[in-house]
Specification:
The protein is α/β, with parallel strands linked by helices. It has one domain: DHBP synthase (Alpha-Beta Complex). 32% of the residues lie in helices and 18% in strands. A 10-stranded mixed β-sheet has the order 1-8-2-3-7-4-6-5-9-10, sandwiched between helices. A hairpin with a 6-residue loop joins strand 9 and strand 10. It is globular.
């Protein structure tokens, strides 16, 4: 006998203290939550639930080899899952919280689920400039999060776009209105001697290199300058 059919639309709640409390319950139960960030809407699950991480790939139709980054509640959480170095710390000091994802060597003591990165020895981390994901990650720890869209389709900038693309494949949407950004984060691989830009994103290569140059020389650098 089949169970009850899933509703056509997921539960949608305002992004406030009540909504975030419900989101914590959904995440703790192994569910998928769509939420606003400082760039585009994302979908998140709990890190300690490998089955839920697998579900993220199914929801998006995302190839498993692409991996999923972690949104942090604080910069200190990066050290719990990855191994930081001078380069990554300099970039974080300039651009966090903000639209920068740093790819770090995995912390061997973290015992991250294999499905998170398809077994790769690295992990992506970002401290977003938005209260919703930071609040949830502060309570639950780093959150596996990816953009709330089908792979290859436009990023979702509001709840209607999330519903149109993902429908009831997510369990809850936190409605924070239209996101302030329309471009995903810049992704920088910090595992080698020199930075490697994996995705230009909001910041772009020139600003990343300028920030590293200024910090290495002990000069101040404003994120909006180049």
């Amino acid at each position: 006998m089949n169970g009850p059919a899933r509703p056509d639309r997921p539960q949608i709640l305002r992004d406030d203290d009540v909504g975030r409390s419900v989101a914590l319950d959904v995440l703790n139960a192994g569910g998928v939550v769509a939420l606003p960030t400082d760039t585009v809407y994302g979908i998140a699950v709990r890190l300690s639930a490998p089955d839920s991480i697998e579900r993220l790939f199914h929801v998006k139709h995302r190839p498993p080899e692409r991996g999923i980054a972690l949104l942090l509640g604080s910069a200190e959480q990066a050290d719990a899952v990855g191994v930081t170095n001078v380069m990554s710390r300099r970039l974080a000091a300039v651009f966090w919280p903000g639209p920068l994802t740093l790819v770090l060597p995995r912390n061997p003591q973290a015992q991250l689920p294999t499905v998170l990165t398809d077994g790769a020895p690295t992990v992506g981390v970002r401290l977003p400039d938005h209260a919703a994901p930071r609040a949830l990650a502060t309570v639950l720890g780093p959150l596996p999060t990816t953009s709330a869209n089908l792979s290859g389709e436009p990023d979702s900038l509001d709840v209607d776009m999330v519903v149109r693309q993902l429908g009831n494949r997510v369990d809850l949407i936190l409605d924070g209105g239209r996101t302030p950004g329309a471009v995903p984060s810049t992704v920088v691989d910090c595992t080698g001697t020199n930075p490697r830009i994996l995705r230009e994103g909001v910041l772009g290569t020139a600003r990343i290199l300028a920030a590293l140059r200024h910090r290495a020389e002990g000069l101040p650098f404003e994120p909006g300058t180049s």
